[in-house]
Structure prediction request, 184 residues.
Amino acid sequence: MTAESIQVENVVASSDIGQELDLETLSGDLGATDYDPDNFPGLVYRMHDPKAAALIFRSGKVVCTGANSVDDVTTALNHVFDELRKLGVDVVASPEIEIQNIVSSGDLDHTLNLNAIAIGLGLESVEYEPEQFPGLVYRLDDPDVVALLFGSGKLVITGGTQLDDAEKALVNIEDRLNDLGLLS
Prediction:
């Protein structure tokens, strides 16, 4: 497997515009929103280009999810800031955007014996209960991410905050599995 086979599936980022918002009013003025405070405390604002959703909270915190790249999450949040400015909300020129989580997927191009991998990697960093979930959960320390490995060889890497976290995790996993003779 190569780093090129890693696909970013979701980028979650947060920002804060530094003031309280009237979500009731915003839900009417923004359009393309869902606001049901009985079910969720935030306003959900959906965008199509890039495809993403912004969760806007009364506190002024904004969380963007569903974007497929860091560039898309930045574009989506800047769109939200511009729309809020058009509605008279005083948003600073460039609110800080912090990447919270990058979810990536890939394929090791080998079928995997998850029972052997669970034993080989050690129970302190692995959760594997096939009756509960068909994947093996592997918690890595470097980088600090969680990888879900499936018997098909497919994997999901979550918890990273840098784009290269998934690549580093993949190299780490491949090296460990090769060292254990489990990738042949």
